[in-house]
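Both lines are given unchanged directly below:

***
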Amino acid sequence: MSFHVIQPPTEEARLAEVGKEIVAASLKFGAKLEIEAFLISWLNGTRVIAERNDQAEIVGLTLVSVGKRWVQSDFAATVLFFNGSQELFDFTKQICSALGSSALFMETGLLNQSAEKDTFEITKFHLT
């Protein structure tokens, strides 16, 4: 297994090819991507981190937003989607830390569900 940060290619044909691979993997893992919004987000800095097997197939995927949270005045990362191994998650934390994030936020479970609202747990992982 190997880990990769997948950057948007500069050539249009290659961008379409790599984008299709990411979208196909995310759908396989249960994400319900709005494809155009994902592509715009990816082109504007959303990080795509993949785990590949020996056949170069994506077997784990993290979509993560990294940047300044202007309300809290800090620089942090938020996992938008994750499906993979603990090793992929550890690699994701390393990448976010290398980019300057002080923390990584991730939805870690459904706590309560009712007709009026769903309550989720958000976990903050300290990176520094």
